[in-house]
Design goal:
mainly alpha, 354 residues, 2 strands, two-stranded parallel ribbon, 3 domains, single chain, 20 helices
């Protein structure tokens, strides 16, 4: 009898191997009792996926892990795992299964409910779910501040799918109400963090063309960065910042504008900036690199990483920096690489110069 695996694609075979690995780990007593190990495992996996296939191959394993997980910190890391765009057609059922597992997760606390919502908002970007997300956003306004901010932060991560135009006709009401909700938060924020969250939500809508008469994506990006710079992060708001910046995509439409944007963000990676901001900024920039945006625009942050490593001490920030995976051009340009030549790859060397 023929082996069915011989007819499976490389993606399916890799997904099966990944699922088997996580299932095997789940049977280990130390793995089950050490939540930090599980969190580090998924954090490392998130930082290593560079191609759509590499990320997609972990979807079945993620669904299994979510179904077994009881620790909120590990759940939060699972909710942040990348979903490639476009998703390979073979992986569409895996994404749907992951959505189903998150839908059915028995969230018992306000925090767990928010984490589950954050995952669903990232995974299911259909406009048909906007009435549900809008209800959640309105109900979040009745929560105490620390829970309200985290809940709104999760909802602000919703982005229309690529190519999705604003709904029209009878379906337009919920979309328009969604836009109005965030515009009101943006114009009259109750606090610094409220304004930040609203700016993030509007940025996603503006980039999809859902704000024809609203602020431009460029203006929202600049205001968002300035608000992050001015924000005095409180103890209860520390979990908000990483989620906010993780949802902000790179502006790859104009390489020079992206170069200036990155230079401005690197100002928040300096030694005199609070470590939570340094961590979130490096996490965001490393994610842009893994997505290939910086490499396509001819940008290298290796000189900035090297300078920062001379003084950086905080392990959380170093974790984020470790997620920067040099591209092929950066590797070949290294002095010890055979025939090393920087070519057209331009470092942002002046961004943190003395």
């Amino acid at each position: 009898m023929s082996n069915p695996s011989l007819f499976a694609s490389p993606l399916v075979r890799q997904a099966a191997r990944n699922l088997h690995t996580v299932e095997w780990l789940s049977e280990n007593d130390t793995w089950r009792s050490a939540w930090l190990w599980r969190q580090d495992f998924w954090r490392t996996r998130r930082m290593m996926a560079r191609t759509p296939d590499e990320a997609a191959a972990w979807l079945p394993a993620m669904a299994f892990a979510v179904s077994c997980e009881k620790d909120a910190d590990v759940l939060a890391e699972l909710a942040r795992q990348p979903l490639p765009e476009p998703l390979p057609s073979e992986a569409l059922p895996w994404r749907d299964r992951l959505i189903q597992v998150w839908e059915q997760y028995p969230a018992a606390t306000t925090l767990e409910k928010t984490i589950r919502l954050a995952a669903l908002v990232r995974l299911d970007r259909r406009a048909e779910r906007l009435p549900e997300w809008l209800t959640e956003a309105r109900q979040a306004m009745d929560l105490e501040p620390k829970n309200r901010h985290f809940r709104l932060d999760a909802l602000a991560g919703w982005r229309p799918r690529p190519g999705d135009a604003p709904p029209y006709g009878g379906k337009a009401e919920a979309a328009q109400a969604w836009v109005r909700f965030w515009e009101e938060r943006y114009r009259t924020p109750g606090s610094e963090v409220d304004g930040l969250i609203a700016a993030t939500a509007l940025l996603h809508l503006a980039e999809a063309g859902w704000l024809p008469s609203g602020p431009s994506p460029e203006r929202l990006r600049e205001e968002f960065r300035q608000r992050v710079q001015q924000w005095l992060v409180s103890y209860y708001e520390r979990s908000v910042l990483p989620m906010l910046l993780a949802s902000v995509p790179a502006d790859a439409s104009a390489p020079e504008r992206l170069r200036q944007d990155i230079t401005d963000w690197l100002e928040l990676s300096r030694e005199n900036v609070h470590w939570e901001k340094r961590e979130a900024v490096w996490d965001m920039l490393a994610a842009w690199q893994r997505e290939g945006v910086l490499e396509r625009c001819g940008i290298s942050l290796l000189p900035d990483l090297a300078r920062t490593l001379e003084w950086e001490w905080k392990d959380d920030v170093l974790w984020a920096m470790a997620g920067y995976i040099p591209g092929a051009v950066e590797v070949s340009a290294h002095p010890e690489a055979p025939g090393g030549d920087a070519g057209d790859h331009c470092p942002l060397g002046s961004s943190q110069s003395e």
